[in-house]
Amino acid sequence: MRLTDRIDRRRRRGERVHSLVRELSALNPTHHLAEPIGRGPTLERLLDRLDSTFDGRLPESFCVVGPKGAGKSAVVSALFDHLAATTTTTRRGVIQTTTRASEPSPTEFAAVDARAATSEFALLRTVLDAVVDERVPRQGVGTETLRDRLAAELDYRRRLVVAVDHVGEPETLSLSTLDSALDPFSSALSYVAVGREFTDATRPTVEIPRYERHALVDVLTARASDALTRDAFDHETVSDVASWADGDAHDGLAALFGAAVTATDEGAPRIDASHVAAGCDAVPDDCCSLGQVLALSESRRRVLAVLASLPPESRSSVVVAADAIAADESVGLSATTVKRVVYELAEHGFVRRVRGETTDEGPGRPPTRPEPNFPTVVFERLTAGPTPE
């Protein structure tokens, strides 16, 4: 931690003597640090793959894979942010001139989140927007036009490496679609596809394993030190969460977030074992990531928000839950539509259907009740408004 950060922590502590929480957003699992913790060897392996860019050559496209919470997004986004910031280039407009320098420009770097760019059009638009000064329109142009404009931009000794995060998720671009969309520019553009698993990968792959326990303790300690006051937690608390999370930083951060919220709501001066247990209980086993949930449409997030707020008796089956959700005026959907949405969310892992004791969903269907399959405490705080401090 930098000296200025250490001094700022002390100053903020003096301003909030009676508060357990200093900046809860520091425990947000969807937030990544500018300097990743405990991933030095991984950064070196990624830099090895990108090493040719420092010699003026375009690197080969490759994949980065690993389980949820392994820090793939944190490492790749931090690396590309630094590479982009330290590369001096002159960005050009969409309309080209005929005069070009004979020497190629330094390699440029850009990042795309496939959760936001869910189509080939959106992908090409985001990449083009990263390499030109002129704002690229979101509508009124076709995919072919964007393809031609990007080809023109990369036709004059420009080289670009694009990191595409969250490839291959239920509602994002597949690896094969990404490859076919960017292959026409392969002489000037290469990509880094980041995802959990690519069974059809033909490119070299860098694997990022789960965090070792000691490394995850370091990650959680650093984040908790920014989020909480000095005496709010101890090493044993963080160690217990790290052991429970089993190498998954997403779940570990979500559990600590929930523990901090529980302790704050109780007015406790520090986080104890009961608060940790409550935080862990609010994170389902094998849950989906909060980033996936927050990338859903507003209407679907609202359905999930109401579902998470329902008492157990109102979630006894999908039909009962759909009726209760539709009754909430903020949802604005019929019970039939809500039922369909819940089934679709369950198919993609956002909702877990748990076998119940009774059925009212028709003959032949196993009785199931819908349960949120994501960290509910963090989700409720992040979607309710500004993160409490």
UniProtKB/TrEMBL annotation:
Cdc6 AAA+ ATPase-type lid domain sequence ranges: 218-278
Biased composition (Pro residues): 364-373
Pfam families attached to this UniProt entry: AAA_16, Cdc6_lid
Keyword field: ATP-binding, DNA replication, Nucleotide-binding
The keyword Hydrolase is assigned to this record: no
Keyword ATP-binding: yes
All copies of domain Orc1-like AAA ATPase, residue ranges: 36-184
GO molecular function, one term: ATP binding
InterPro entries found in the cross-reference section: AAA_16, Cdc6_lid, P-loop_NTPase, WH-like_DNA-bd_sf
Renumbered residue ranges of the record's region Disordered: 354-389
GO biological process, one term: DNA replication
Protein name as it appears in the record: Cdc6-related protein, AAA superfamily ATPase
Organism: Halogeometricum limi
Biological classification of the source: Archaea, Methanobacteriati, Methanobacteriota, Stenosarchaea group, Halobacteria
